């Protein structure tokens, strides 16, 4: 339900109040204890010339500051992406990286299977005899497993970092109509910020063999469930990014369609 037009406490500064017209804040703030006008504030003077391309933009809603009921959090004019759409995007990307890694790691997986086969066979035979297995040592298994995990992390980096750096969208995010954007200004993330966002998740892949990596990745993503109002995961906080809803591309144009304020694309 959309908040009706009227004067409300400013979510960015609780000592002031501003006029909400049903879609955005209008006019300059007033002290919180001052009697507001009966209607909207008078028109503001003409805005100053826009900064050059790539210059700073108006800051988004401050993290941790509550919004009035019904007021959506916007970043650069786009609403925060629904968590369900983000989950779909992540699952699609995991499936894509998994398939690519399966192909790239096929030789190492085959060698790992060969090394582990005697130990697995001994464990199986001992269990059928009702005995405790004493499998042979497999010193090469750890080396092959580390190679598989390092190659998997490298494939993930090659899949995600360039896509986020240029467009803010991996194939999964494009399918789910979500986009990763900078908090400070609109525009591409750039390689450095894309790497900063990937690092907390991607580097933990090497720790999968000790089960620590899964825990680190789960915690990084789960923080978005609790963060308000920007729904930032730990990897978003590391790179100062946020995931927003993005309008789907119009067929035949390659351009994003118009965004519907206050709703999903």
Automatic annotation (TrEMBL):
Pfam family, one: RDD
Domain DUF2510 span(s) in chain numbering: 5-38
GO cellular component: plasma membrane
Domain RDD per the UniProt entry, residue ranges: 81-239
Compositional bias (Pro residues): 32-64
TM regions (residue ranges): 91-110, 144-165, 201-226
Main location per the UniProt record: membrane
Assigned keywords, A-Z: Cell membrane, Membrane, Transmembrane, Transmembrane helix
Location of region: Disordered: 1-64
InterPro entries from the UniProt entry: DUF2510 (IPR018929), Pra-immunoreactive (IPR051791), RDD (IPR010432)
Domain of life the protein comes from: Bacteria
Localization annotation: Cell membrane
Topology of this chain in the membrane: Multi-pass membrane protein
PANTHER family assigned: MEMBRANE PROTEIN (PTHR36115:SF4), PROLINE-RICH ANTIGEN HOMOLOG-RELATED (PTHR36115)
Protein name: RDD family protein
Organism: Pilimelia terevasa
């Amino acid at each position: 339900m959309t908040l009706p037009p009227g004067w409300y406490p400013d979510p960015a500064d609780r000592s002031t109040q501003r006029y909400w017209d049903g879609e955005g804040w209008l006019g300059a703030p007033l002290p919180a204890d001052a009697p507001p006008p009966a209607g909207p504030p008078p028109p503001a003077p003409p805005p100053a010339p826009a900064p050059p391309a790539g210059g700073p933009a108006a800051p988004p809603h401050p993290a941790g500051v509550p919004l009035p009921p019904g007021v959506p959090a916007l970043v650069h004019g786009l609403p925060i992406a629904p968590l369900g759409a983000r989950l779909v995007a992540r699952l699609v990307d995991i499936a894509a990286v998994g398939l690519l890694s399966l192909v790239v790691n096929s030789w190492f997986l085959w060698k790992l299977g060969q090394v582990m086969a005697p130990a697995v066979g001994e464990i199986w035979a001992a269990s059928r005899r009702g005995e405790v297995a004493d499998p042979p040592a497999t010193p090469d298994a750890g080396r092959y497993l580390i190679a598989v995990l390092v190659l998997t992390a490298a494939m993930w980096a090659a899949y995600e970092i360039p896509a986020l750096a240029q467009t803010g969208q991996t194939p999964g995010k494009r399918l789910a109509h979500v986009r990763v954007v900078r908090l400070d200004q609109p525009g591409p993330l750039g390689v450095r910020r894309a790497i900063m966002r990937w690092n907390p998740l991607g580097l933990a892949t090497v720790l999968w063999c000790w089960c620590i990596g899964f825990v680190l990745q789960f915690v990084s993503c789960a923080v978005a469930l609790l963060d308000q109002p920007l729904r930032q995961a730990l990897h978003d906080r590391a790179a100062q990014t946020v995931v927003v809803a993005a309008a789907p591309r119009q067929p035949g144009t390659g351009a994003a369609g118009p965004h519907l304020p206050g709703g999903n694309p």
